[in-house]
Amino acid sequence: MNFFNKSLLVAALACCTTAQVFSQGSEAQNLPTDYLTPAFHAGRRQALRDMMPGNSVAVIFAYPERVFSKDVNYVYHQNPDLYYFSGYKEPDAVLLVFKDTQADGDSSYNELFFVRHRDPQQEQWTGRRLGVAGAKAKLGFKRVYNSEQFSKFPIDFKKFNTVLYDDLPDDVGGGGAGSLKELLGAFKEKADIKTSDKALTNDLNVIGKYATPKNLDRIMAFLKPRLDREAYKNSPIIQELVAKPDSATLADVKSKISASPSGLSLYEKFTTDLRGVKTSEELDLMRKTVKISSIAHAEAMRAVKPQMSEQELEGIMLYVHKHYGAEDEGYPPIVGAGANGCILHYEENTATKVDNQLVLMDVGAEYHGYSADVTRTFPSNGKFTEEQKAIYQIVYDAQEEVFKLCKDGVPYGDLETKTREVLSSRLIQLGIIKDAKEVGKYYPHGVSHHLGLDVHDKGEYGGGLKAGMVITVEPGIYIPAGSPCDKKWWNIGVRIEDDVLIGKTEGTLLSIDAPRKWQDVEKTVAEKSIFDGGKLPDLK
After folding, report:
1. Per-state percent for the chain, helix, strand, coil, to nearest 5
2. Is the CB of residue 493 less than 8 Å from the CB of residue 375?
3. Which of the listed residues 228, 272, 287, 366 has the most CB atoms within 10 Å of its CB?
4. pTM for this prediction
5. How far apart are CA 358 and CA 340, in angstroms?
6. Using one digit for the tens of pLDDT, what is the confidence trace for 151-203?
7. For residue 198, which of 226, 168, 233 has the smallest C-alpha distance?
8. Beta strands in 453-520 (DSSP E)
9. Gyration radius (Cα) of the chain, Å
């Protein structure tokens, strides 16, 4: 990367001529052709509009940019909700979706989009921008304005019965006209929004859905650490429950939550319902990103050698992802050899040799915004030990039992119940635990989450599975050194994670291209890799 200090940058930009900078008509060719279409995004906006209550507006902001090092930002990642409803990938933007058509002189509209303005000089340094014309031509919006116009745009948010919006970030940095900071400030002022707290919204939802007189003590204990936060102090519902946490108060509180949902809670509910069940267009991308990830896992098995580092294995997977067009990974790759495999979110990947140990790889591609989440565990020397094989088979069998439940109508909680049932009974058989209640020592996480634009995607967990959902199934057993069991089990960490499309009568395993049976894993590790035979120069 070329580096210029700010004064040099200003001078350099001042010298640029119009002919030297990017123009909207000079975009590179050979771009992917399988992005979600403007029609898809418009359909999602209409689906949101159909859910919204009368006389309401939804306000959806871009995510902030984040500093990586001094004046260099991380690669920008859009707010998945804004991408879902618009296809827009740039910062400093806000989308308004109205339930009802709004009159504006001789014209009318039901959505407004404020986007970052074109700046040819900046575009030469940081890439092309869509601008107003691009958002109209490429994303299909009719009423588009530069983001600088939002603060003075004549929108009276107070006339709406409900203003729907997500948790508003407060760590957005600086910025002038049209920046996210200005957009958020203008919105708060126009809509008279004092604070927003997603944790409070989520807690109110939990109370409304799940609180009972029997579990009220546990819910109050959960709330206690948050009660000194401003939003909780200013919540009449929370304060009512704190003042008198009994059955009668709980009934009154649940009634109030149900009768008067906030714009924040409604936004969360609607976007969760929409994104939790994938459309056919989304499923095409989900199948592709999971297949890319699965092929990469299989290639990592073929390529592994005891003398390899964890980072080298990570690099092999990332190469395969890039080869098939994945823009990124859905989360920091986890490559843990031996004891490192017992750390659930081990992301350092710094071991210089995997040696003759199990390697746990939890790595998923992100393709056009959609994330896979696949984990495989395999022996770097090609053969499981008897102890490793025994633990692996338990995890595999738990997965197989959970797969049978991956169909429409099955309560989501049944997946966890079945997982714990299988893991606990089998660990008891091996003498690793004595009581089913001890299973949490070696299985400390849940078996499933929704998957999509976020690796832990929006989706309903309290009800039943629905056809069109995509979820993970990821049982695991982790036995770190020092555990209260025979030492022969120590430092064995096994997780097998697959991505499943929920169907009407059965689920579809999307990650089938990554070997799962221990016999198939050993067979794959013994196969030749496309990376075999190559050698880079020694650094010494």
Report:
1. 45, 15, 40
2. no
3. 366
4. 0.89
5. 10
6. 999 999 999 999 999 988 888 888 889 999 999 999 999 998 876 667 887 78
7. 168
8. 470-473, 476-479, 492-495, 498-501, 508-509
9. 26
